[in-house]
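Structure tokens please, single chain.
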Amino acid sequence: MKNTLNAPTQTMLFMRPILLAVATLITLVANTLAVVLPLNNRSTEAISDSFRVYFTPAGYVFSIWSVIYTALIAFVVYSFFPRNRSNTAIQAIFPWFMLSCAMNTAWIFLWHYGYYPLTMLVMLGLLFSLVMVYIRLGIGTTTYTGSDFWCLRFTFSIYLGWICVATIANATALLYDVQWSGFGISTEVWTSIMLVVAVALGLIITETRNDALLVGVLLWAFIGIGVKHSAVPTVGISAWAAVVCTAMLVLRSIWISHRKRVQGA
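Here you go.
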């Protein structure tokens, strides 16, 4: 049978997974150098700890990056499968994923070399690009199973969830860096307010997308904040209250998904 695809389309189908792989590799290398060298002789965690802010979780929480990057590698491998070369989902998210890689890589260098106002702009760019990926994949409105679930829904739910946390943390670090007075409100109280905002985000995600994975990432971060700052009463109590509320949202989301499966059986 004659191939009806024109040459530009055939070229794009061939090049798309390669471009995804290159963009992901550059991102992984940049983040690896940040740890191994480290860039500018300062580790990412050490820079975070230099800010007296309370929205930063305990160090072990950042191990989620290993899960995220493993999932991204799985996504890239998935894109090379012959049946996925013309996958409309990958086609829809391709430009936004490429942008997310550029933003992620740029953020690492800006953070390590102290360009904190620019890190906020780039972090917002990363957040926006992942929101677009999330929307275009229809997560919460489209059913994913098998490799589609693990390489698309799982990957981008946890990635977006963590970047939501990172965006708030980045904002608090920037405000500390510019010595914002906080309208006379203490850092501890502002942290509590940010936790309320983050829990509200989890509620919105649960009600609109029923995404236990994304909300579960918020839960993971809140536990880390509670562990790290348990000695600060206002922050510790707020963090553990956020943990309880978010855990309830995760359970609600799981229950809704279970009920839909039973009804659909």
